[in-house]
Amino acid sequence: MDPSTAGHLDFYIGLCLAVGSSAFIGSSFILKKQGLLRLAQKGSTRAGQGGHAYLKESLWWAGLLSSKSVVLVR
Description:
Number of strands: 0
Shape: rod-shaped
Oligomer: single chain
Strand content: under 5%
Order of helices and strands: HH
Helix content: over 70%
Radius of gyration: 18 Å
Distance between the termini: 27 Å
Largest sheet: none
Structural class: mainly alpha
Number of domains: 1
């Protein structure tokens, strides 16, 4: 492979990793937010007011763990 082709390949690999990472982080934020909205509909005490009900919400955990897995992959 000549150097110009390798440089282009590195560029596209980096671009794909950046876009994929952004999509993954964005979806993890959406999962956490959906979990918190679900709790708000149930009438649970909000975390800012001293509530800890979000710790029992599976969507919130899915969002948290998926956002942390991006950090581990990097």
